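Researcher: Last one for today. Full complex below.
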Amino acid sequence: MRRLPLISFAIIGTMIFVAVFAPWLTPHSPIDQSLPDKLLPPFWEEGGSTEYLLGTDIFGRDLLTRLFYGARVSLIVTGLALTVGGGVGLVLGILSGYVGGKLDAFLMRVVDAAFAFPTILFALLLAVTMGQGMDTLVIALSLFLWAGFARVIRGEVLAIKQRDFVALARVHGSSPARIMFVHIMPNVLNTFMVLLTLNVGVIIVAEASLSFLGAGVPPPTPSWGLMVAEGRGKITSAWWLSLIPGIAITLVVLSFNLFGDWLRDRLDPKLRQL
Amino acid sequence: MDSAPVLEVRNLHTHFFLRRGVVKAVDGVSFALRRGEVLGLVGESGCGKSLTALSILRLLPQAAARTIEGSVLLDGEDLLAKSPGEMRAVRGQRIAMILQDPQTSLNPVFSIGNQLHEALARRPDNTGRSLRERAVDVLRRVRLAAPEQRVGQYPHELSGGMKQRVVGAIAISCAPEVMIADEPTTALDVTIQLQYLDLLKELQSSLDMGILFITHDFGVVARMCDRVAVMYAGRIVETGPVREIFDNPVHPYTQALIASVPKLRRKTGRLRAIEGQPPALSDLPVGCRFADRCPHAEPRCLERYPEAVNVGENHSASCWLAA
Amino acid sequence: MSTAPILEVHGLSKHYPVRKGILFSREVGQVRAVDGVDFSIGEGETLGLVGESGCGKTTTSRLVLGLETPTAGDVLLEGRSWQGLSGRDKQDYHAKVQAVFQDPWSSLNPRMHVGDIVAESLRISKWGTPAEIDDRVAALLVEVGLRPEHARQYPHEFSGGQRQRIALASALAIGPKLIVLDEPVSALDVSIRAQMMNLLKDVQEQDNVAYLLVAHDLATVRHMSEWTAVMYLGQIVEYAPTESLFEHVRHPYTKALFSAVLPDHPDRQEEGIVLSGEVPSPLDPPGGCRFHTRCPFAMDICSQVAPPLTESQSGHLAACHLE
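Model: Here's the assembly. Have a good evening.
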C-alpha cells in the first residue's frame, strides 16, 4: 500500500489556507501600486527587505501577497471548471454508457470532436468575443474537461452495466433514471473523485497558460499564470518575478497529481486489502 | 504403494503478512505423491489448496505471501532451497501445472503452435523432427481433432474444451514427473468434463506422472483419484485411499461433505448441511478448526488441536473422536 | 398438473442477428438462442431447466424476467401476457417475478447497505411507511437465516453463502409468485450449497412461491424440482415430472447428460453414452433433430425432420424419432 503523501497534503493544505485567508495574512494589497518599492528582490538577496519577503514587481506590489490572491483565483477557477465540466461529463457518461445505442454513438462522436478541438484557440476566441474574465475562463476550461470525464465514466458504466445487480434492479421494476443515478452512479464515484484530483493539475496549468497568453483573468487581478507572463520581460534582472510563481505552479500541480495517484490506490478495494 | 514418492511436502506453512494481521492460509500441510498416482487435494475455497500448489512451485501471488516453514522434496531435492534460476528449470519441465480457466491460460496473441514451440524448445529432442512436427504430435496425444490445422490457429478460434486440451498439451510437452491440476474441469461443461478427466488419466498412465489434483468436487475425486487428502482451514484433516474415504470417512468434516451432496440416483429428503462458516484464517481457534461446526464436538476439541492418527491402512485423520 | 399454472410460456424464441461487414453491415445469420420453447409452472412448484452452456436456458430465464424481449412467442403470468404492459401494470408484473442469480459477488450493489438492497423493490412499489419497510426487511433477514442488524452492513462484509441469502431476501421482499433461480448454488462452496438448497425449499413451503430453476447439475435439479425440462441448442428435448424423467430417461441427449454425471462413489461409474465432440454453434444449427450430429442412434430421418415432443405416459414428453 502506498503511504499517505504527507508533503503533497501539506502543500495542498497550505494553498487552500492562504487562498481562503489571504486578506488576513498580509498587510499589503495585491492590486494597489507602490512605485517607490518597485522591483525589490526577495529578503535574502542584497537589497531585499523583510517587509516584502519575496520581493515586489514592476509596480511595487508584494509578490507574496499576489501569490496568495493568485491561489484564490486558481482555486475558484479550478473548482468551478471541475464542477461544471466534471458534472456534465459524469451525467453524460452515465447516460451514454447505460442507454447505449444511438445516443451513445452520438455523444461519443461529440466527445471525439471535443478532443479534436483546439482548446487554446477557442479560449482566445471566447476572450475576444465575450471579453476576458473568470466566467470566460471557466466556460473554456469546462468545454475542455467534460469530454475526458464522459469518456472514462462511460467505459466504467459499460462494465458495471453487465453486473447482475443492474439486471436485478430492472427485475425489481426500477426506472432507468433510478438505475442510473441510484444504482450505477455510486459505483462510479470513486473513479470520478480520482478524475477530479488528477484534473486539478491540468486545470491549474491550463488556467496559467491562458492567463499567460492573455485569455485568462484580466490584469491587475493576480493569477499565477499572469504573474509568470508579466515577469518574463525582466527574467534576467528580476528573476523572482517569473520563477517564484512558476515554482508555486509546479509544486501544487505535482502535489495534486501525487494525491490523485494515492487516492486511486486507496479507493481500489483490491489494493486496499494489502 | 511401496515406491519412493516423487513429490513430498512436509509441514508446509505459507502465510500472508498483511497490515491487519497474519493469514495462515497454509498451516502445516504434509503429503506424499507417488509416480503413477492421482492424489486428490479436496477442500472448499479459501482452505489453502491452491496456495499449497503455488507454494510447491514457488509462485506465490503477492509480496505479502511467504513460505516460512517446511520442505518440498522433488525426488529428494528440496525445491525451497533452490535458486530462482534452478526453480525456473523445474517449472514446466519437471512439474507442470493446469489451471482452472482455459480462457486466461493461453496468450491470445500467439498461435497454438507458437505457444507449444516455446514449451517444446526447452526439451532437446534427438529424433531430428521439427518443432512443428513435435507440436502436432503433442496435440494428437491430447486428442485434439485435426492437429495439423490447430497449430496455426489462435486461442479465440477454439472452444473452451479444446483450449483446455491445448493447455494440457503444453503441460505434458516436457514429460513432467509431476502434474498439478487446479480444478481443470470446473469451467468446462459436464459432457466435456468427463472427456477431459479421461484424457488426464490416459496421459498419466502413458507418462507415469504423479498428479496432484486440486478440486472441491467429490464426483471428480471418485472418478479420478487413487488417494484423497481433505483440507480444511489450512490443514489436512483426513487422508487415505479413495475407497476408504468414501466407505469409511472418519473426520466429521469429510463425512458431512460427502453427505451434503444431493444424489442423482435416489430422491433425497432434506440435505445434511454443514451449518456455519469456516473460521477466519487470520483468527484461528487453538483447538480443532472444525469444532464450532461439528455435531460431535466435545470440550477437548476446543482446547487442543488433534494430531493425525492412523485409523486404517494408509488412512489417517486429525480428530479426537478417532484417537 | 395439479395446480393452475402461474407461468405459461408459449412458442418462446429469441434470435440474435449476426452482422458482418464494416461499412455496409448486413445480416449474415441468426443465433437461435431460444427457438420455440413451451412450458408452464404451477403455483408453489419448481421446474428445473437443465442443459449445457449455450443451450439457451439462461436466455429463457431472462425472457421470463422481461430482461430480454422475445423474437416470437409469449410469456403469460397468471394468464396475462406481459408484452405491451407499461407503467403500473409492468411494475406489478415485475413484483410477481423476481430472481436470484448465480454470482453473489455480482448481484449485490457494493455501494448499498444490505437493508437498502432488500428494501429496493418495496420502495419502488411504495409498499409502506419507512418504519413498516424496516420491519419487513428485518423479518426477511431472519427468514433467510441472517440477523436484523445485518441490514446496516455492506455486502463486502459477508461470505458468498450469506450474500446469496441476502439476494434471496431481496427477491422475496415484495411477495413474488415466481422466483427465477439461475444456478443459485453453483458458485457456492460445497458445504454451503446444502444450506442454501434447504433454505430455498423452506422458503418455498412457507411462502408458496414457484421456482424456475436453471441448473447444469442433474442431482441438484432432482433434489429441488417437481418438473424437469432438458434443453439442447435452444429447444426442449425432454420435459417430464422429475421422478418420471430420472427413472425412465427417453431422449438420447438426456441419457448422455446422465452418463456424464460424475459418480458419487469410485465403484459406481456411470455407464452409457459418452458423447464425442462439442455442442454445435447455435448460429446455423443442424437441420432436422438438432442432436443428430452427436447422437449415436441417429437415423436418416433425424437429419431431415425435426421430431415433435410426444407424450409417452402421464405428461412425460420427449422429442425423438426413436420411439
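The interface with chain A takes residues 62, 65-67, 90-91, 94-95, 97-99, 101-103, 106-112, 117, 120-121, 124-125, 156, 167, 170, 174 of chain C (CB under 8 Å). Residues 190-207 of chain C form the longest helix (18 residues).
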